[in-house]
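User: Before I run my own analysis I want an independent prediction to cross-check against. Here's the chain; please return only the C-alpha cells and, at the end, one sentence I can use as a sanity check.
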Amino acid sequence: MGKSLYLVGIMVVLAALSGVLTVCPAEESQEEKPSGNSKCYVCHPGMKTEELTTSHLEMGVTCDECHGASTAHMHDEMLMTEPDLLFGRSEVPRMCSNPTCHKPGGGRQIYSREDHKNQEAVEAFFQKWKGHMRPNGRSVNAASVCTDCHGTHNISEPINPQSEGEQAAAWIAAFNGRDLSGWKASSSSHWTVKSGRLTATTPENRQGDTIWTGAVYENYLLAVTFRADWPVHAGIWLHGDGSKRGPRIEIFEPTQTSGPKAYTGSVWVPGKGLALANLNGDLIDRESWNTLSVKVEGDKVQVWLNAEEIGSVRVAGPSKGRIGLYIGKPPASKSAELSVREVLVQKLAEPELKTSAS
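Assistant: C-alpha cells:
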C-alpha cells in the first residue's frame, strides 16, 4: 500500500511539472509578443508618426502584417539583414490591392483612384499635385502608386539600436532619390537620375564611368541596393583618392570558361586582381533588387550580399577616400544598365590600435 502511494505521489509531481513546462513557454511567448509596432520603433522611431504606419495601426494592421515577422532583421544590430518581405515601387499597387484591405471595384485587379471613397477630394488632390514633387520626394502622375501620394514610407535613414552608454551613429542617405546632389560626375558622365534611381548605361565604345561622392569617408558601413540588366560589369569603389584607388566590390558574372568562377560581391584590387572571390552564384537575384553591404575598417574589408556574408580580406590602398559607383565596359559587346535605388553610409569610429600583447 505504502509503495503504491509513493508511486502515485511521483506521478502527481511529474504531472505538475509537466503542467509548468507547458504553461511557461506560452507565458514567455506572450511576453515576447510585440505591442503594436513597439519593437520596430526601437530602430525606426520615425515610424511612430509616419502616415502609412499610423493610419494602418489604427485599423489594427501592424508592420509585420506586410513585412513578415522579420526576426533576423530585428536582431541584426548592424541593420544589414532586410525584413522578410520588401516591396519595390512597381509591386506596391498589387500588394495593397488585397481583398481584405483595399478591394478593387468594377472587376479590376488593382486598387485605383476610382476606388477611393471621397472622389471629389481625391480628384482635387490629384489636380493640385499632378506633375509636381510631393514632400516625400515622389512625383505625382497618371501612373503613380499608393506610396507616391501617401506617407514617406521609405526608410532612408535607419538608426542603430542604442548601445550601452551611447547612441550609435546614424545611417546617412548618400543618394537623395531626386538628383545628383552630393555626387561628382564628369561632364560626359552617363549617370543620371530616372524615376528616383541612379542609373547608368554604358555605350559599347566606352571603357567605363564612375560617379563619386562629394564626401570623404574613412571607416564606415555601406549598403547599396541595386538591380542590373544582365550581363553587366559594374562595382563600388570604397576609397577613391584622386588617381589612387582602393578596392572595388564587383557586380558581375564570371566570364572565364574554366577554373573557379567568381560572382558579385568579390573584392578586386587595382593592379592585383581579385583579393576575395565570391564562389556562390546563388546569392544574386537576377530578376529583382540586391543589396551589397560592406564594412570598411582600417585595411579590412568585410562583404555581405543579400544578408549572406561572403568574407573579409585585408587590402592595401588609401586609408580614406570617396565612394564611387562604377559601370564598366559591357561584356559581349552588349549595352549594360545598372540602377541604384539606395546608398546608405554609417561612419565608424577609429579602429582600436593593436597592442604588442594582442
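Sanity check: Confidence is low (pLDDT under 50) at residues 1-34, 156-167, 353-358.
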